[in-house]
Design brief:
2 domains, disordered N terminus, five-stranded antiparallel β-sheet, PH-domain like, alpha+beta, about 210 residues, single chain, three-stranded antiparallel β-sheet
Length: about 210
């Protein structure tokens, strides 16, 4: 019989029909969040660069193009350094640990970042209670978990356009038109979660196409 903490870190079906699990990772050893933020920042610079070039396209010369490109490259590098420093500051605030509660069902999933002062043991206790509770108590337990939530992002499977698994970081990226979400899951449950998402996304897509 596994220990409660070990049990609740695994993806587990609760009485209300939702899968729940806690995931914690080292923000220094696992750079997936920083990489995601960096990509968004670089994309923003690329869009602005393209806009500036289009504005001056009538008078565009090789010198103007390369001078502008150099300027944006330097700015991008500076902001990447600033972004990295900011990331380290945020990581320190969270004790270099990122703790997330995931809830997943047939319709989608919710990624809930826990408060920095919130202890993992407390979340484990709530989840253990949820797994053994009768359905009438689930709402009260969920309310307690929500009170410790710092931020959350929900993804609806019927809106998902792409799924990208990154096994080495235990991450599944789930992208919608106006939302990019990520699921973190232990390697033992990685294939289950990935296939669960793929199947539901495909089912929703087929339903929408009819």
């Amino acid at each position: 019989m596994p220990q409660k903490e070990e049990y609740t870190q695994r993806v587990t079906l609760c009485p209300d029909g939702k899968y729940r699990w806690i995931y914690e990772f080292d923000m220094i050893r696992n750079p997936v969040i920083f990489i995601t933020v960096s990509k968004v920042l670089l994309l923003s610079f690329l869009v602005v660069f393209a806009f500036v070039i289009l504005i001056g396209i009538k008078d565009l010369t090789p010198k103007y193009f390369f001078d502008t490109l150099l300027c944006f490259v330097l700015l991008a590098l500076i902001f990447q350094v600033i972004g990295f420093i900011a990331y380290l500051i945020v990581a320190k605030r969270y004790g270099y640990k990122y703790i997330v509660l995931f809830e997943m069902d047939e319709n989608g999933f919710v990624h809930r970042q826990m408060e920095s002062q919130f202890e993992k043991a407390s979340a484990m206790g709530w989840l253990t209670a949820a797994m053994g509770a009768v359905s009438g108590n689930i709402s009260a337990i969920a309310a307690g978990i929500n009170s410790a939530t710092h931020d959350s992002l929900a993804t609806d499977f019927k809106l998902v356009k792409s799924i990208k698994p990154i096994r080495k970081f235990n991450t599944v990226k789930v992208n919608s038109p106006f939302s990019k979400n990520q699921i973190y899951v232990e390697k033992e449950d990685f294939d289950f979660v990935l296939e669960y998402i793929k199947k539901r996304v495909e089912e929703k897509k087929n339903t929408n196409d009819k």
